[in-house]
Design brief:
This protein is an alpha/beta fold. It has eleven helices and eight strands. Strands 1, 2, 3, 4, 5, 6, 7 and 8 form an eight-stranded mixed sheet that branches.
């Protein structure tokens, strides 16, 4: 059976509910479990959803399993933090094989580094007179990838700030008193690792970065496959980004970047339509084959 079986029929194309290719769960810094995310994606009328936790793929199996019986095409990926010429850049690895050993080993190392980073943030907050229960925080994170949003939510719960946004502005954002830089991939390393794991390397929320055209050209030289044109933060710049993608022969992706029902865009709030999904799906199936990883199944669950 084709990996696109059930997706490529005329009837399914006409009824295609869109693809949200960027959502986060409790496997990193989201507040919903992978299982709940699958249910939310189905309830939003999506046809496709991809779990892209920060430096983590260990929630993918539960996400895919929970989609069974919903008709959702569920797949996995990861969002990797990259240092490119001193700039913090995020790279989506879409449709990576979560069982690829080298990627899995590197992500496990980064999760350990993230925990040490969180400890240092909590120590800096304590020096500022804000004491958080680190063991309770660890219990809440569980097997997720410890990130600043976890600490930010703990600051809100402790009454130190009124919102996650305020936590970042006053304490956790770049240059703030409790900020601790995180370990990052190089752009070339991240792209190569995604491709070796049978995935598509896609630049996330490009409007976050300086010199987007230059970054995309640099990425393309290193094997970048696509760019996230449709994202809540890209509003008003989609045509510009579509033009850049077309000029460089890059695939076009999009997603909500969902983390929490109370903050940011809901699941399915930003999605791509059929023609763009079809191109992404075909490229993803080919990449898995070329990387000699297990075939990618994009049939509805």
């Amino acid at each position: 059976m084709s990996a696109l079986a059930g997706v490529g029929t005329g009837a399914t194309r006409a009824a295609f509910g869109g693809a949200d290719l960027h959502v986060h769960s409790t496997a990193s810094d989201g507040v919903e479990s992978p299982e709940t995310l699958a249910a939310l994606a189905a309830a939003a009328g999506l046809s496709v959803a991809v779990l892209t936790d920060h430096d983590a793929v260990h929630g993918v199996a539960a996400f895919v399993a929970a989609a069974r019986g919903t008709g959702l095409v569920a797949a996995g990926g990861a969002e990797l933090s990259v240092d490119e010429a001193g700039q913090d850049v995020h790279l989506l690895g879409l449709f990576v094989d979560p069982d690829e050993p080298r990627l899995g080993s590197r992500l496990a190392e980064l999760r350990e580094v993230r925990e040490r980073r969180a400890e240092r943030m909590v120590e800096r907050l304590a020096a500022l007179g804000i004491v958080l229960d680190l063991e309770r925080l660890r219990a809440e994170v569980g097997d997720g990838a410890f990130g600043r949003p976890h600490v930010a939510r703990a600051l809100v719960a402790a009454g130190a700030v009124a919102s996650v946004a305020e936590a970042f502005e006053r304490y956790l954002g770049d240059g703030a008193p409790a900020f601790v830089p995180k370990a990052k991939w190089s752009l070339g390393e991240a792209i190569a690792s995604v491709r070796a794991a049978g995935g598509l390397a896609v630049l996330a929320h490009p409007v976050w970065y300086a010199d987007v055209p230059g970054l995309l050209r640099r990425g393309r030289e290193l094997g970048l496959d696509g760019v996230e044109v449709f994202h809540p933060d890209n509003e008003g710049r989609e045509e510009e980004l579509l033009s850049e993608a077309d000029g460089l022969g890059l695939l076009v992706s999009g997603g909500s970047d969902f983390h929490s029902p109370s903050y940011g865009c809901p699941v399915g709030g930003c999605r791509v339509g059929w023609p763009l999904w079809e191109r992404l799906a075909e490229a993803a199936v080919a990449r898995r084959r070329d990387a000699a990883r297990p075939a990618l199944d994009l049939a509805p669950r």
